[in-house]
Amino acid sequence: MHVLVVNCGSSSIKLDVLDPHSGERLATARVERVGHPDCVLLMGDDSIPIEGADHARALAFTLPRLLEGRAVDAVGHRVVHGGARFDAPTLLEDAVVEALGALSPLAPLHNPPNLAGIVAARALLPKLPHVAVFDTAFHATMPRRARSYALPKALMEKLGIRRYGFHGTSHAWVAQQAGRYLKEDPRALRIITCHLGNGASVTAVEAGRSVETSMGMTPLEGLVMGTRSGDVDPGIILEIARKEGLDIDGLDKLLNHQSGLAGLSGVGNDLRDIEARAASGDEDCRLAIQVFAHRVRKYIGAYAAVMGGVDAIVFTAGIGENSALMRHRITQRLDFLGARLDEDRNRDARVSPASPVAEFSEHGSRVRLLVVATDEARAIAHDAALLAAGAQSVEAASMIPIAVSARHIHLTREAVETLFGAGHTLTPYKPLSQPGQFACEEKLTVVGPKGRLANVRVLGPERSECQVEISRTDEFALGVDAPVRDSGDVANSPGITLEGPAGVVTLAKGLICARRHIHMHPDDAARFGVGDRDVVEVAVDTDGRDMIFGDVLIRVSPKYKLEMHLDTDEANAAQLSGGDGGVLASTGGSVRLRRRNVGFDAE
Ligand code: ADP
Q1: How far out from the chain centre does Cα 260 lie?
Q2: 464 and 574 belong to one structural domain
Q3: pLDDT by residue (tens digit) across 525-539?
Q4: Of all atoms in ligand 1, which is nearest to the CA of residue 374?
C-alpha cells in the first residue's frame, strides 16, 4: 500500500508518497512561498517556478508530476486543529470537510491552508479515500483539570476555550518508538516527550496517553519557539497594548512572529546561527539559549510532578534531534529525578529513519534519556492506511459485532458430577459464536449470603477451574463483591455456592465480574492495528444512548471470531438489547474503535 501525505502550511506544501508500514519514501516534493510571486516547486534536483500559485494551483501543478506512473491507495492530510469534535483520524466526506471549515477560527493561521489542500486534493484525486489526521487528536485524553483554564466558565463554553494541545502526531509517534526501544509496554511507562523544532511543545504521556501538554488553545502557549513567545504573563500583553497602542493584529504579529528565539537573539529563529554567535560571545544569543533550555527544564520538572514520576525523557524534531548542546543544557543536573546524562553518548547521538532511537543517559540511569526521530508523514500515512484499508468508509472498516453475556457458569468435570450426578456429561443446547463454545441445557442456582439467582446457565466445554461470571447488579442481589477480571483469572477471587439437582458445590474461588473484551482473529487485529492484550476505547452508537467504553481488552487468537463481549449492565447502560439465558446473543448494535493509545502497534 502507498499513501500520499499532504501537509499544507500557510506558505509551503510538503508532499510525500510512502509505504506506511516500512516508512520507505517513494517520492517527495516541496512547494515554497505559496501565494507569492516567486512560488517554486522543489522536486529531486529540480526547482520549477510556479509564479503566484495558491494552494490549489500549486497542487494541480505538482500532483501529476509527483504521482506520474505511481499508484497511490489513500491520501492522508495533516490538519492542525480538530476542535472538540475530531479526536481521531477521520475519513474526509463532504460533511466532515464542511465541519472542518467551521473550525478555522480556532486556528486561523493553520486550518485554512490545511483545508485548501484538502479541497484541492479531493478534486484532483476524487476516487481515493482522503483521511484527516489531527495534531490535536492525541491530546483528547487530557483530564479536565489539565485542559481547563481559570477563566469565567460561561465565556469558555461560548468560545470553545480550553487546552487542545498540538504536535500530537509527533508526540504519539516518538512515545511509541521509545516504548518499543525500551522493550516496555507503553501502558506501564511515564514519558515526557519534548518536540523541539521551530514550533516546540512538551507532553506528559502516561500509560500511552497524553495527560498534559504545553501548547494550549492555540500553538502559542508553553515553550520558547523560533518566533513565538510561549508563556508570557498575560498582564504584559495588556501593558504592551496600552503603552505601545498595538491593536489585535499588531499583538498577533508580535507574539507569533517577532518573539521567541528570534526576539531574544535579534539574529533570527535558526538555533544553528544562534549557537554559532553565542560561541563567539554574543550575549543576546547566549540568553536566548539559556531561556529556551530553562523553559524546557521547568516543564520537565512540572510534568514529572503531574505523573508522579517519569521513566523516560524523549527529545525530537530539528533542535531535539540535532542540538547536543541544547539537550545537555536541558538535562544536566536532573539527577534528583533519576536522570543521569552521559556527555559522550549525548555528543554522539544521531538518529535517522533507519535508526530512529539513540540513548544518551548513563548506563544504569533510572530515567532513560532518548533522542527519537520524529516522522509525522509516516504516522499520518499509517493512520490514513488504517482507515482506508479494505473499506469504503470508516464505519464499515470498524464495525465489530457486539454480544451481550448474561450471568453464566463454567464447571470442572468434578463439579459437573457433584451437581448433576456421577457420570453426567453436559448437554449442548446451542453453539456460541466463539468456535467450540456452547450453551448447555443445564442450569444451576447461585447462592450468596444475601440472595439467590435461579436458572443460571452453564456453558461448555468443561474447564480446569470453575468460574461464575456475574454483573454488578447480580452482586447486590447475592450480597457479594466480585472483582473485575479477565476470564480464566480467578486467583484470589471470592468463592460462592452452587446448587444443582444432585448436590451442592461450595467454590473457594471463581466468582468474577467479566472484564469487557473483544475477541479478534489475527486478521482482524491487523486490520484494526491492535495487538493481543492492548486496551482500547470503544464508541458504541445506539439510538440516543451513544457511549464510550474505556478499558476494553483485546484478545487475539486464531481460534477467535471478531466479537465484543459486554455484560448485561453494560449493555443496558448503552441501551443494547440483552442476552438470552446465559447465551451470548448478538445484538443489532455495533461499535467503533477509537485509536487513542500509543500502546497500539504501529507496524
Ligand atoms: P519545524 O517546526 O519547522 O518542522 P524543525 O523540526 O525542522 O522545525 O526544526 C527546525 C529547527 O531546528 C531549525 O530552526 C534549527 O533551529 C534547528 N536545528 C536543526 N538542525 C540543528 C542543529 N544541527 N543544531 C542546532 N539546531 C538545529
Answers
A1: 29
A2: yes
A3: 776 767 788 777 777
A4: 6
